[in-house]
Amino acid sequence: MAPSNAPLHTDVLVIGAGIIGAACAHRLAQDGLTVRVVDGRLGGATQSGMGHLVAMDSSPAELALSAASLDTWRHWGARMNDADPACAYTGCGTMWLAANDRDMAEAERKQARLRDHGIDATLLGAQQLANAEPALRTGLAGALHVPGDGLVYAPSAARWLLAHAPPGLSFEAAEVCNIDTQGAVLADGTRRDAGAIVLAAGWAATRLCDDLPLQPKKGHLAITDRYPTGMRHQLVELGYMASTQQRQGAAVAFNVQPRPTGQLLIGSSRQSGQSTSAVDPMVLSRMLKRAMEFLPGLSGMNILRTWTGIRAATPDGLPLIGRHPTRPTLWLAVGHEGLGVTTAPATATLLAALIQGTAPPLAAAPFAPSRSFNKVAP
Fold this sequence. Notes:
Elements: E1 9-15, H1 19-30, E2 35-39, H2 45-48, E3 52-53, H3 60-83, E4 94-98, H4 101-116, E5 122-125, H5 126-132, E6 142-146, E7 150-151, H6 154-163, E8 169-173, E9 176-179, E10 183-186, E11 191-199, H7 205-208, E12 215-224, E13 234-237, H8 240-244, E14 250-258, E15 264-272, H9 281-294, E16 303-313, E17 320-323, E18 330-334, H10 340-356
Parallel strand pairs: 1-2, 1-11, 2-8, 4-13, 11-18
Antiparallel strand pairs: 3-7, 4-6, 5-6, 9-10, 10-11, 12-15, 12-16, 13-14, 14-15, 17-18
């Protein structure tokens, strides 16, 4: 990565150095463009999220974006860990847990959707699940095992993407105050200009572009001390899918990850319309209680830290990837909600193709910022 004294006019200016901005900058530099990344280091969803890499299938477009991204993550993973073990990439896979027969029926439907897209997924009965993850409570109906999913520590992964790009990429730690047709104005009054501006700043993007169809969704997380739990997979209840689509109030769902440190990372919650960082004790309590319903052993573990993060969500649950509808030099890569880490690679590939006018690797229309939002994605 070039030093911050690189030329002030580049082919592309990327605003935001989280996982989405870093992936976009990395790809554009790979394509031979000069790229400058500007970020105020104020924190964002990349710093506070779970870092799951999971094939999500709430809609065909979401599945296409996540599946294409997972292929790239598997290619990146070993290289990341070799260069920086803090990236903590692991192909642990996901167990989608079925509490009852109704959930098992949904697991079968999910398996069919994934397999139709070429993604391996295996149904497990109650005893097979108990053998695979004995820390889970008894009485679960079974699970859907998706072995190709994984985990990564997203802040380190974003840094790796910036550090291991071609020489045409530079980074500057600075806050952007305004964007216009030529580029951006920084907090110190100086300019950084480019032929194309990519806005990839998550929820903070609404401060720079006030017509984005985004709303905040606050989430809580907790992490335990180190314990010999023996957990090998990311564990998620099948009801998680419904919780991601709730548009009002607070929703919680069971999602626990075994971290390479021996700790357990506990999620998840969503509070629509909430953009404050304060921990909500009632929501946190509900989330932890839900987790203990699936993992009773959590009740005897120490929680070392709790925190929140803000996801930027669109009305239909799909991100905005492409040219701004009325600002021809402004390109958007925002609104990924809780799936930004997973979908960063394919977001970057799609956006790079659109900027350069080449054939996109997947259908771009479902993510177009100019699309109608009359319907919520199924």
